Amino acid sequence: MTETHAFRVAELPQNAATAFDFSPDAEARARIAAELDLSALRKLRFTGKITAQGRRDWLLEGQLGATVVQPCVVTLEPVTTRIDTAVRRLYVAESAPPEGIEIEMPEDDNAEPLGPEIDAAAVMIEALELALPLYPRAEGAALGEAVFTEPDKQAMRDEDTRPFAGLASLRDALKDKP
Question: Which InterPro entries match (predicted)?
């Protein structure tokens, strides 16, 4: 996405929130849809504010609204999904880079290291990607059961793979015996 909504940290006011509200135009939405492998991105709006947290940290809080179209994982028919989600990112000035092979995840997974800019458009795209349905499914679409086997052999079905499925019928047969 070539359009940027980056705020230079050095220019943000310490004593007041910096509000933002943007809706990418059709061309920008088409680029975002292509980047995220969507069939279409009909609507997209990101509103919020950036406020100082202490002397050096910054908090971005916003609301993301979007209407996306993805192919159904079963039928490939278009599936339209409405996304409305809150977005929160805490930019921490003194964030030490992870060292070593193993790193421990911080308690706040919304904390990020503070750079010279806070790019609200990049946050919008990231939040949209995280909110997308992983397996969109059209209404009534079902996978069904696929059965494959060699000719003249009995196919193994899902029911045959359940080890305790036959025990219920065995129990019932034993109850019936006098």
Answer: YceD
- Is residue 90 within 8 A of residue 57, CB to CB? The reply is yes
Question: 11: which 2 tokens?
Answer: 């220019």
Name the DSSP letter for residue 156.
P
Report whether 58 contacts 12 (CB < 8 A). Answer: yes
Single out the residue of 62, 108, 69, 105 nearest to residue 85, CA to CA: 62
CA dist 125 and 135 (Å) reads 19
Q: How many CA atoms lie within 13 A of 21 on its CB side?
A: 1
Of 43, 106, 33, 114, which Cα lies nearest the Cα of 70? 33
Contact 88, 61 (CB under 8 A): yes
Query: What is the average pLDDT score of the chain?
Result: 84
- So where are the chain's domains? 6-131
CB 60 within 8 A of CB 120: yes
Burial class of residue 87, CB neighbours in 10 A (0-12, 13-18, 19+) = buried
Q: Report the C-alpha gap between 160 and 149 in whole angstroms.
A: 14
pLDDT by residue (tens digit) across 74-115?
888 999 999 999 999 999 987 556 666 766 655 556 788 888
pLDDT tens-place string over residues 120-166: 999 999 999 999 999 888 887 776 666 677 788 777 666 666 667 66
